[in-house]
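queue> pop job 88
queue> type: inverse folding (structure -> sequence)
queue> payload:
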């Protein structure tokens, strides 16, 4: 009787080999999925540059607006869809803060600064760059000086123009791109 009781105690103290293999298999699958997902997030952000960010934002799932916001000191940028931060890993577009210009109502090129951003924790964060696309496929209209290049972001479906001098960039600026094209009589 004692030997039978001793055998049952020995048999019930551990896991079977099959149980251990199943646990190891489950842990391996979970780890594989996590690492694969993490690598995909890194790949998504590796191809975002000033020249590709407009197309990247247009591919995002959004209803009203998708945007890239870079916070001071301009080392990390994030993608926001409809004012909610995505789970895409932070990325960098700039080595130092860019200079951003916009045309004023007199068609003069003026430095542009961005308003602070209120994050999900209700903290104001200073913004060094912000670029938006909207559901009608229009986008922000800027001239950006970064990495010794000038990038002209046009408001609609035109590609980003890149020049090496400010005078060449000014030639590309066209106020007619943001004004209505039709001749209408307005009654004010």
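queue> result:
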């Amino acid at each position: 009787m004692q030997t039978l009781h001793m055998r049952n105690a020995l048999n019930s103290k551990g896991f079977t080999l099959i149980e251990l293999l199943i646990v190891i298999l489950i842990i391996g699958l979970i780890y594989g999925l996590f690492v694969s997902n993490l690598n995909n997030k890194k790949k998504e952000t590796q191809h975002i540059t000033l020249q590709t960010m407009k197309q990247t934002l247009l591919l995002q799932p959004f209803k009203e607006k998708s945007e890239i916001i870079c916070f001071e000191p301009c080392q990390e940028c994030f993608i926001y869809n409809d004012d909610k931060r995505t789970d895409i890993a932070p990325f960098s577009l700039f080595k130092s803060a860019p200079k951003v210009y916009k045309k004023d109502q007199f068609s003069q090129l003026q430095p542009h600064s961005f308003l602070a951003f209120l994050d999900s924790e209700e903290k104001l964060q200073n913004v060094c760059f912000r670029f938006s696309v909207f559901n009608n496929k229009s986008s922000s209209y800027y001239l950006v000086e970064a990495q010794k290049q000038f990038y002209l972001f046009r408001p609609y479906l035109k590609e980003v123009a890149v020049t090496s001098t400010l005078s060449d960039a000014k030639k590309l600026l066209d106020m007619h791109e943001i004004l209505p094209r039709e001749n209408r009589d307005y009654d004010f």
